[in-house]
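*** Query protein ***
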Amino acid sequence: MATTNSAASFVAVLPELWAIVGKHCGVVGAFRLMLVCRAARQGVKEWLRTLPRLMVCGGSGLSLGWTVHYLGEVWQLDLAELQWERMPDLTCRRAHHACCAVRGGVVVLGGKISEYEDDDYCNDISASVEMLQRKSFDNEGNTFKLLPDLSCDLMNGPIAVAIDESESDQGQVLLIGGNDIEQTPPLAVVHKVDLASGSCTVQPPFYSSLGHVVDVQAAARLTDGRIVCLSSACSDMDDSEAVEYSLTQVLEPPLCGPQLTQVQEASWQWRTLPALSLFRHCPGMCVLSDGRVAVIGGNDGNGFVYASSEALSLDAGEERWDPLPAMHEARCGFACAEIGGCVIVAGGNSSTIAEVYEQGLGRWYRLPCSLPFDGQICGMGSALM
């Protein structure tokens, strides 16, 4: 009888053991474990449900006749079930906006908006800000809530990065780059935004040592608080023969290491890093589990879309870019995030297919859960919740 009870107890805790094994195997390895047995499937799904979810919101798409339309839909990826779940819609349809996670929720800032069903009105650049708190996710009827508008210039295409803070009631983000109207050059500016008030405080701007026009393309925050920013630079925006090139910089204090958190933000400055091997517009960017910064896909500025990727190592004394395996689908303007030792990408202006990169084995796999859109979508916002 004792032996039987021991065996029953062992079986009862099997899902918990499988959850631990799944955690050590990463997301893709966990998918494989689901095929072992029912207990493995149950345990792995329990672990997958504890991971943050990739959320995508808004974006611009093409309908019949190549008419551009903006979206207000919000979706999140359930990794346990490998399906996209509908979330509350944005307060208005928008694209080319900034989006990031703040205090477990998600905030959306600026971009181009449309408050009308008529596509001809999709041209207004917005200073509006809206937020969905994590506590609202499972409560039916909750929606994105409007926060105070940005006090700085209206911005189309900025990048948002959450920062550590304790003073604000709603949180703070860095808002990097963008442009105020479509016809003007990009703004080489960085603002710290207090979400509770909309107040924008100017921070050290990113720059080109040659004095060229700089346009931010992507940014990511390292675990030590530093921010890596990928930009494109051009000698003359009005010159058809001007050559564009990639510019990578890191925002950091003058002293790195243990003193990092003790240095005042006002002393942080941008420092130039080695350049990418390819000029990339609108790539995906995230920090890998080993601390490297991955830049994925993008386009060459003339319509050719990349499937290739690169990773930046920031080891002391040696900063370099190394190639990563190429995705199955070439894409730009897509959602991208690192989750559980893997990188997940979805959408873009040439694909609605989702893929996952297994960092341990260096392989890309297609996921059986394409974005629920009828056609290409780009300029979307994305964040982990």
